Hints:
The complex is a heterodimer. Chain A has helices spanning 5-13, 17-41, 48-65, 77-102, 106-112, 118-131, 137-147, 153-160, 164-186. Chain A is mostly helical. Chain A has two domains: 5-112, Orthogonal Bundle (Rna Polymerase Sigma Factor, Chain: A), CATH 1.10.1740; 118-186, Orthogonal Bundle (Arc Repressor Mutant, subunit A). Among the domains of chain B are: 10-48, no CATH class; 79-140, no CATH class. Chain B is built from seven helices and no strands. Chain B has helices spanning 10-14, 23-33, 37-48, 58-67, 79-94, 99-116, 118-140.
Amino acid sequence: MFDDIHDLIERCIKREERAWSEFIDRFSGLVYYSARERLRRNGFSFGEQDIQDIVQNVFIDIWEKSSLSEVRERHKIKAWLSIVGQTRALNFMRKKRERLLGEEELFKVENIVSDKGEEYRIELVEELEKAIENFSPREKIILKLNIIHGKTHKEIAGFMNMSINTVSTIIARRKELLRKTLNNFTN
Amino acid sequence: MDIDIRCLDEKTLSSYLDERLSSMERKRIEEHIADCNTCLDMLLVAYESHGRNKKCPPILKDRIKNRLGLKQPKKRPELKWLFTCLVFFALSFIFRHYFLQFLAIAVILGFKWVMEGEAAKRVIMIFKGIQEKEKKFERKSPPDVSNVAGGDRYGKPE
């Protein structure tokens, strides 16, 4: 119906019903995926109802606060919506935890967070952060993406808007130093 | 992994994935995400969400639209059955040689139209509800043990 996202957003700002209907059809999947992925990555135990409530609240919030008019880069609406979905998911779970604590339902609070398998990852992050403390911000990001998140050189280059050669050079240069530092940890 | 107060706002953070972002702005965001694992991971999810098959349950979409008070086009699929039924009914008079055949098809389609109508659906739902209530009532009523020899009123042997 609306081929251009910019045009769709403009019409949504004017509160055209058809545009909003299209906006929900087009982007609810993105918000749904982002919220679910955020809770999964943070180790939260959640139900389908939790995700549905989060997604619904995101769209209601955007509608009520007219947040769309504040987005500077309208063609980058997807990235913004994904971040919004994720932050709202974290806030939702935090509030849920507080509410359950208030009701003294501690057994339910414990059920919200499951840290199984997270310990090793946290340890690795801590060790890596110590080792790369003196690196430049860009180098730190590249190494974290490569070592912790297991991203390929090509993926890192795409994410950081850099050439693959630059990414590969940085990784090759810094990995030798890191290998020595992290040797104790991996062995 | 909680959101820090010093973290970047949603708009600034998401602008990192814009290729047209100035190098100064990019550097400022990189200085933050180099030390903030939460923001880096959020950006990563946003980046990875591109090109993924992202589906949202249709019921949720409808729920959001209803909540926002958006008018949704009424779906009237049952009207197609009525229309086809009328066409076959008319054909039965045009092709008199196949009158009964066309009429039979028209009756079947007419039945389909009636059964798919909102009113018929409501009647079926009420009927099912009554049936379920009756089943529950039957389950709750105490067992009749008057004829069981040598048992007490719960059916246990003495």
